[in-house]
Design a protein that fits this description.
mainly beta; about 250 residues; ten-stranded mixed beta sheet
């Protein structure tokens, strides 16, 4: 009986912690030092091919030939949504720009007027933006990986990232389901000759440039519903995504 009670208490505590962590929308602009040092989990790197991205989305050679899936508004009861309605919000389009500022990877998405801290090149307690690092006499850390803290998905529509600068990039993703776990995350390495489209409900972060800065054509559902997961708050870990492409990675 004692073991059962303890297990039930542990489960209830875990659920309460998760609910508390997900109750408020995340703050996307903050100083790195506001985040604690936490253990890091390595994310597998997979070369993006037509076969490897199946289930997550598709590689796109021409953005004008990529249909952005829009999910019909869900019915609230037993009466169905009328045919031809509930999916007319349209598509948002703009430039998604990612850029390193010292040790901090920043992003701006003009399609939805959003600005974000995507991650860091090192432990956030050691990370500094370029201006702050210069004042402190600190050089930026060598960029071998991105330490990411957050994921989200869009239940209302898919999303296309098409590289305008034709440079390699990465996109971390996970399959749909609200019970996401850190070990379910993978990252696709793209050579920059094609874009990457992801289906509605696919967990993702922003796109990561291999270089200092990169621009993408972004197309996504205009409703822009967003469901988030803060890995640090929920699981006590960050995810570490390598930027380099070893010859031994799957699909290479």
């Amino acid at each position: 009986m004692m073991q059962t009670t303890t297990q039930a208490t542990t489960q209830a505590t875990t659920q309460a912690t998760t609910q508390a962590a997900t109750r408020a929308a995340p703050q996307y602009i903050f100083e790195a030092g506001e985040k604690p040092s936490l253990p890091m989990i390595d994310v597998p790197l997979i070369k993006a091919t037509d076969q490897s991205v199946k289930g997550y989305g598709a590689l796109v050679g021409d953005p004008d030939e990529c249909e952005i899936e829009i999910v019909r508004w869900p019915a609230q009861g037993w009466r169905p949504i009328d045919a031809g309605s509930g999916d007319e919000g349209g598509i948002a389009e703009g430039v998604f720009c990612t850029q390193w500022d010292g040790d901090v990877l920043m992003a701006r998405n003009d399609a939805v007027d959003g600005e974000y801290v995507l991650g860091w090149s090192c432990d956030p307690q050691q990370a500094a933006r370029a201006s702050a690092g210069a004042r402190a006499g600190k050089k930026p850390s060598a960029r071998a990986h991105v330490v990411l803290w957050h994921f989200n998905y869009h239940p209302d529509g898919g999303q296309l990232f098409f590289p305008l600068d034709k440079q390699p990039f990465l996109l971390p993703v996970a399959l749909p389901g609200d019970d996401i776990k850190p070990h379910q995350v993978v990252a696709f390495w793209c050579d920059g000759s094609q874009g990457l489209y992801i289906h509605p409900g696919i967990w993702h972060d922003g796109v990561f440039p291999v270089g200092d800065r990169q621009r993408f054509l972004d197309r996504q559902g205009k409703v822009h519903a967003r469901v988030s997961c803060d890995f640090g708050a929920e699981f006590g870990v960050y995810l570490k995504v390598p930027l380099m492409l070893p010859d031994s990675i799957p699909g290479a």
